[in-house]
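[09:14] KT: can someone run the structure on this one? pasting the chain below
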Amino acid sequence: MRDWLVGMEDEFGIQILFACEAGSRAWGIQTDESDFDIRFIYRYRNVRKYLSLRKIPDVLEFQSPIDVTGFDLFKVCDLILKSNPSIYEWAFSPHVYMESNQFSNQLKQFISTNYSPFSLYKHYSSVKKRNVKELVKGEFNFKKQKQLIQAVRADLICTGLIKSKSIFSPYDYIDNVLNQSGIGDAYQTLTEAKRKQILLTNTEINEMIRFLSVAELNESMVLPKIQPSLDQLEHWLWDLLDI
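[09:31] RB: done, structure tokens below
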């Protein structure tokens, strides 16, 4: 994996600051057939490219031999300012394939102090509602079981945000409730079924959907609406570009 990433650095004239797993392997629910989903953050080695009139790609995507997507550092900074959930999940991925100068620790630290718990809650609440809405349509199948996993996971992260009112790893939010009854048990049941490629019974499915469909109180209002520090992010960007 690392050799392939290094080869990509040479081919595109970039430095990969961070590369991680972002798919089912990151969540520990992969099967033998699961693909790798690699996500990375890069900068161009030649800083003059950022000052050129020729537009440079801020996204690099590959489907072969593995699913790989990379974002340029400037694009990542724009997303960080919006408390983007994808960058949040990448930062805390338990599987880091490559990084430069402890980039992941710096990224996690910035996210923990500058991301908006309110914005993240709204995102994951929307993910849960959207997937539950799809689940009640038509016959249940493995695709919908995957959507159910996403809905339950989003609910667990929402719970973690409400309880902590701070930004921690999404994986920690989930681990903290796995041994609790209710939705924690449901998530364990779902992930075990995913690993074994077993479809849950209608009784199990309907109980989980019922739990997820309970009307939410306006809990998000207690969460901080943090505005990220543009100055702090900008200075970090300059450091990463060696300017």
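[09:33] KT: thanks! The longest strand covers residues 14-21.
[09:34] RB: yep, looked fine to me
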